Amino acid sequence: MQEREIKLLFKAGVFDSCQAIPISMARGWTLKFITKQSEVITLELQRSKDEREFKSLDGAAAVARRIGFEWLNVQIGDLKWREKV
Asked: Number of structural domains, the chain?
Protein backbone atom coordinates (compact mmCIF):
# COMPACT_ATOMS: atom_id res chain seq x y z
CA MET A 1 0.00 0.00 0.00
CA GLN A 2 1.29 3.48 -0.77
CA GLU A 3 1.95 6.24 1.75
CA ARG A 4 -1.08 8.37 0.85
CA GLU A 5 -3.42 5.39 1.26
CA ILE A 6 -1.87 4.51 4.61
CA LYS A 7 -2.24 8.12 5.74
CA LEU A 8 -5.99 8.02 4.93
CA LEU A 9 -6.39 4.76 6.87
CA PHE A 10 -4.46 6.28 9.81
CA LYS A 11 -6.84 9.25 9.90
CA ALA A 12 -9.75 6.79 9.87
CA GLY A 13 -8.32 5.10 12.99
CA VAL A 14 -7.56 1.73 11.39
CA PHE A 15 -4.05 1.22 12.77
CA ASP A 16 -2.91 -0.01 16.16
CA SER A 17 0.85 0.49 15.67
CA CYS A 18 3.74 1.01 13.28
CA GLN A 19 6.84 -1.20 13.29
CA ALA A 20 10.31 -0.67 11.83
CA ILE A 21 11.95 -3.97 10.98
CA PRO A 22 15.42 -4.47 9.50
CA ILE A 23 15.52 -6.11 6.08
CA SER A 24 19.12 -7.14 6.66
CA MET A 25 21.95 -5.34 8.35
CA ALA A 26 23.32 -4.20 4.97
CA ARG A 27 20.06 -3.23 3.22
CA GLY A 28 18.18 -1.14 5.76
CA TRP A 29 14.66 -0.94 7.21
CA THR A 30 11.04 -1.42 6.22
CA LEU A 31 7.80 -0.18 7.80
CA LYS A 32 4.93 -2.48 8.73
CA PHE A 33 1.58 -1.16 9.90
CA ILE A 34 -0.52 -3.28 12.26
CA THR A 35 -4.30 -2.81 12.11
CA LYS A 36 -6.61 -3.20 15.08
CA GLN A 37 -7.64 -6.56 13.56
CA SER A 38 -3.94 -7.66 13.67
CA GLU A 39 -3.49 -7.49 9.90
CA VAL A 40 -0.09 -6.38 8.62
CA ILE A 41 0.15 -3.76 5.86
CA THR A 42 3.49 -3.00 4.22
CA LEU A 43 4.55 0.34 2.76
CA GLU A 44 5.20 -0.04 -0.99
CA LEU A 45 7.06 2.00 -3.57
CA GLN A 46 5.02 4.52 -5.56
CA ARG A 47 5.70 2.99 -8.98
CA SER A 48 5.67 -0.71 -8.12
CA LYS A 49 4.39 -3.20 -5.59
CA ASP A 50 7.88 -3.71 -4.13
CA GLU A 51 8.38 -3.06 -0.44
CA ARG A 52 9.82 0.38 0.31
CA GLU A 53 13.25 0.20 1.90
CA PHE A 54 14.90 2.87 4.05
CA LYS A 55 18.67 3.20 4.39
CA SER A 56 18.37 4.43 7.97
CA LEU A 57 16.02 4.13 10.91
CA ASP A 58 15.75 7.93 10.90
CA GLY A 59 14.31 7.85 7.38
CA ALA A 60 11.73 5.24 8.34
CA ALA A 61 10.80 7.23 11.47
CA ALA A 62 10.36 10.41 9.39
CA VAL A 63 7.82 8.69 7.14
CA ALA A 64 5.98 7.23 10.15
CA ARG A 65 5.80 10.75 11.62
CA ARG A 66 4.59 12.20 8.31
CA ILE A 67 1.78 9.61 8.24
CA GLY A 68 0.77 10.64 11.77
CA PHE A 69 2.25 8.10 14.18
CA GLU A 70 3.69 9.42 17.43
CA TRP A 71 5.46 6.17 18.38
CA LEU A 72 7.45 3.66 16.34
CA ASN A 73 8.03 0.10 17.52
CA VAL A 74 11.49 -1.13 16.52
CA GLN A 75 12.28 -4.84 16.35
CA ILE A 76 15.65 -6.50 15.72
CA GLY A 77 15.32 -10.23 16.33
CA ASP A 78 14.28 -10.64 19.97
CA LEU A 79 15.24 -7.05 20.84
CA LYS A 80 12.21 -4.71 20.83
CA TRP A 81 11.81 -1.10 21.90
CA ARG A 82 9.59 1.92 21.31
CA GLU A 83 10.77 5.29 19.97
CA LYS A 84 8.92 8.59 19.95
CA VAL A 85 8.97 10.00 16.40
From this structure: 1
Say what the alpha-carbon torsion angle 27, 33, 34, 35 is, to the nearest 10 degrees.
Answer: -160
Could you tell me the CA-to-CA distances from 36 to 4, 10, 14, 41, 62 in Å, in that order?
19, 11, 6, 11, 22
Question: Residue 53 in contact with residue 84, Cβ under 8 Å?
Answer: no
Ranges of the chain with pLDDT below 50? none
What integer pLDDT is reported at residue 49 of this predicted model? 86
Q: State pTM to two decimals.
A: 0.89
The pairing of strands 15-24 and 28-35 is antiparallel
Domain containing residue 24: 3-84
